[in-house]
Amino acid sequence: MRQRNFVTSLVYLVFIIVLLVGGTTLLNNHLAEAKYTLEYNFVYIIGIPIVCFGGIGALLGLSLSDGSSHNKETRKIDTFRLLLLGLPAFIISLAHVWGYLGLFHMLPGFYSYLLQNDHIIIITNIILGHTLVSSIYQSQAH
Q1: pLDDT band at residue 54, thresholds of 50, 70 and 90?
Q2: In whole angstroms, what is the distance from residue 20 CA to residue 60 CA?
Q3: Is the pLDDT at 5 greater than 60, yes or no?
Q4: What's the CA gap between 53 and 89, in Å, rounded?
Q5: For 59-88, what is each residue's pLDDT tens digit?
Q6: Are 128 and 93 in contact (CB under 8 A)?
Q7: Which class for 105: exposed (0-12), middle (13-18), buried (19 or more C-beta within 10 A)?
Q8: How far is Cα 37 from Cα 133, in angstroms, rounded to an integer?
Q9: Please, are residues 96 and 138 in contact by the beta-carbon 8 Å criterion?
Q10: Cα 91 from Cα 68, distance rounded (Å)
Q11: Global pTM?
Q12: For a Cys staple, 61 with which of 5, 42, 133, 138, CB 3.0–4.6 Å?
């Protein structure tokens, strides 16, 4: 059992490293190209962080679950966790969309701060992925 936990943790670590390196490389390459062409692709700017860094959060959430599934257990969703953590993380992770739509015209300082500090969007995508996975839990069926 201990050997299985070590191998599972090692597989999670490899996936996290692949997602981290792949996401940062793709994002940095796109931003370096966009400096010269001045053409930003919103699929790259929004999709890569959600898939790669949200995937890291999802893997971290999966590593906390025991993975066992019994016949008499039902899956439930913790809506309080989704609303408290997931909704703000989702809103901040889509900051580029909200800025493009002009929703930040009242808060230009906040929007420019989010654009200058990419790590905030990366962290919120990790929180979003973790929240989406960890808000699904198993409960005993009656």
Answers
A1: very high
A2: 13
A3: yes
A4: 12
A5: 998 887 766 655 667 778 888 989 999 999
A6: yes
A7: exposed
A8: 38
A9: no
A10: 33
A11: 0.83
A12: 133
